[in-house]
Automatic annotation (TrEMBL):
<keyword id="KW-0812">Transmembrane</keyword>
<dbReference type="GO" id="GO:0035251">
    <property type="term" value="F:UDP-glucosyltransferase activity"/>
</dbReference>
<keyword id="KW-0472">Membrane</keyword>
<dbReference type="GO" id="GO:0016757">
    <property type="term" value="F:glycosyltransferase activity"/>
</dbReference>
<dbReference type="Pfam" id="PF00201">
    <property type="entry name" value="UDPGT"/>
</dbReference>
<keyword id="KW-1133">Transmembrane helix</keyword>
<keyword id="KW-0328">Glycosyltransferase</keyword>
<keyword id="KW-0808">Transferase</keyword>
<feature type="transmembrane region" description="Helical">
    <location>
        <begin position="110"/>
        <end position="128"/>
    </location>
</feature>
<dbReference type="InterPro" id="IPR002213">
    <property type="entry name" value="UDP_glucos_trans"/>
</dbReference>
<protein>
    <recommendedName>
        <fullName>UDP-glycosyltransferases domain-containing protein</fullName>
    </recommendedName>
</protein>
<comment type="similarity">
    <text>Belongs to the UDP-glycosyltransferase family.</text>
</comment>
<dbReference type="InterPro" id="IPR050481">
    <property type="entry name" value="UDP-glycosyltransf_plant"/>
</dbReference>
<feature type="transmembrane region" description="Helical">
    <location>
        <begin position="134"/>
        <end position="152"/>
    </location>
</feature>
């Protein structure tokens, strides 16, 4: 029987890349492993993954991708939550039968040493327990945020109000006091469905076989020590913590060529370009896009701007469909692209952030994440 580890990321491209890098790291320590990555369809448009998956499959034969049948939210599904994470959590929950089938199928020819999930995929814990497969969490943020996530159930039990209603910074072991305004939006309201989901995820993390975190001990000694000393889970044992960072990935061009953005940056003066990129879920309204464009034009600044098509339908369920790929000329002020073409570049959906941020022409002024 071959040895296998199964990785289950949220399908957004950022989560997928992180899991792939973890898989590569595992292979460097044990080349005999086979890595199996479970792929669900996206609950909302969070960036294309097809070309990336194809490139990984060609470069790393020991990593196999298992694609689930497309799952959709039922017609009667409704939510009062304003957060897109609610859609993702529900769709991942509905994929549990696919998770069970995949794990059972892989187990026919492999000894599955563990299922590694991210914090979105906690619904699969029920399947892992049913099949007696140890489950681990992979936390792609640093230990400082992991402290907060692990401590969330304690805050929930200790205080009867939402985090957004705190009138003073929130005390969390191993981190400086956290202003309520800095809490992630889905975790602000204790009555929100997204909050309830992540609270459940935190509780399941506390009983996992281990937590893998993308950091190293000397970078965050105070935060790591608070976790390993049990301060973040005062009501019980803390799972083993594995610091395996930093994991850094270079995604490359979606089409295998050098991205247009890097070619353009090569022709710009050193330290002259401001980079605007708001991540795979940084979606603005048409009005907001035009305001940003007006500000850039008036500033006289050289810029590289990543723009994603806006969602016009305010209904949350519309996010489960692909966002129309609109022409930039229709989204931005009339004539903006022509007037700024000598000092600015607007690209659609994606740019290689690591390469852009390390480019000599991008200096000092960086926006987004």
């Amino acid at each position: 029987m071959k040895e296998a580890i199964v990785l289950y990321p949220s399908p957004a491209i950022g989560h997928l890349i992180s899991m792939v890098e973890l898989g590569k790291l595992l292979l460097t320590h044990r080349p005999s492993l086979s890595i199996h990555i479970l792929i669900t369809n996206q609950a909302y448009d969070a960036g294309p993954t097809t070309a990336y998956i194809a490139s990984v499959s060609a470069a790393v034969p020991s990593i196999a991708f298992h694609f689930f049948p497309a799952t959709t939210l039922p017609p009667d599904f409704s939510t009062t939550s304003p957060h897109h994470e609610t859609l993702a959590l529900e769709l991942l929950r509905l994929n549990n039968p696919n998770v069970r089938h995949a794990l059972t199928s892989i187990s026919e020819n492999h000894v599955v040493y563990g299922l590694i999930i991210d914090c979105f995929c906690f619904a699969a814990v029920a399947v892992a327990r049913e099949l007696n497969i140890p489950y681990y969490y992979f936390f792609t943020s640093g230990a400082g945020y992991l402290n907060f996530f692990l401590y969330l159930p304690t805050l929930h039990d200790k205080f009867a109000k939402s985090l957004k209603d705190f009138d003073a910074p929130i005390d969390v072991p191993g981190t400086p006091p956290i202003p309520p305004s800095d809490v992630a939006k889905p975790l602000e309201d204790r009555y929100d469905e997204a909050y309830e989901g992540f609270l459940d995820s935190s509780l399941k993390m506390q009983t996992s076989a281990g937590i893998i975190v993308n950091t190293f001990e000397k970078l965050e000694p105070r935060a790591v020590r608070a976790i390993t000393d049990g301060e973040c889970v005062p009501g019980g044992p803390t799972p083993p913590l594995y610091c395996i960072g930093p994991l850094i990935s270079s995604r490359g061009g979606d089409d295998g060529r050098s991205p247009e953005s890097l070619t353009w940056l090569d022709s710009q003066p050193r330290g002259s370009v401001v980079f605007l990129c708001f991540g795979s879920l940084g979606v603005f309204s048409v009005e907001q896009l035009k305001e940003i464009a007006t500000g850039l034009e008036r500033s006289g600044q050289r810029f590289l701007w990543v723009v994603r098509s806006p969602t016009h339908d305010k209904n949350q369920k519309a996010a489960t469909s692909a966002v129309p790929d609109e022409d930039l000329g229709c989204l931005l002020p009339e004539g903006f692209l022509e007037r700024t073409k000598e000092r600015g570049l607007v690209v659609k959906k994606w740019a290689p952030q690591v390469e852009v941020l390390s480019h000599p022409s991008v200096g000092g002024q960086r926006t987004g994440g």
